[in-house]
Design goal:
about 100 residues; alpha+beta; elongated
Length: about 100
């Protein structure tokens, strides 16, 4: 994720050791930029000592996909298509139907 961003968006961004050495604000900014401009899906390996904890990853829309217990590395996944479920009230059956209104 460091360096020059690609010319076109890609399907998946893979981050290994990308957050190493970054503080919380820098890590959140990097993730936000990649998520907005580069890839709608991200897989990040968070090593021990990562500036972002599990709650912060969750707040950014990530889910914990797995943990490498030998290396103590957590794997987080983000997918724009599934990060938030559509609430039940946000569908057409709850909207007003003007054709049913009587003048």
């Amino acid at each position: 994720m460091h360096g020059t961003p690609p010319d076109q968006p890609c399907a998946l961004a893979l981050g290994i050791d990308t957050l190493k050495g970054l503080d919380t604000q820098q890590a959140q900014h990097l993730i936000s930029q990649v998520r907005l401009y580069t890839a709608p899906r991200m897989l990040i390996a968070a090593p021990p000592g990562c500036a972002l904890d599990e709650a912060t990853f969750r707040a950014l829309g990530f889910t914990l996909s797995g943990t490498d217990t030998a290396e103590n590395v957590r794997i987080y996944y983000y997918d724009i298509d599934t990060y938030k479920t559509v609430p039940d009230w946000l569908n057409a059956r709850y909207w007003a139907n003007p054709e049913r209104w009587e003048p």
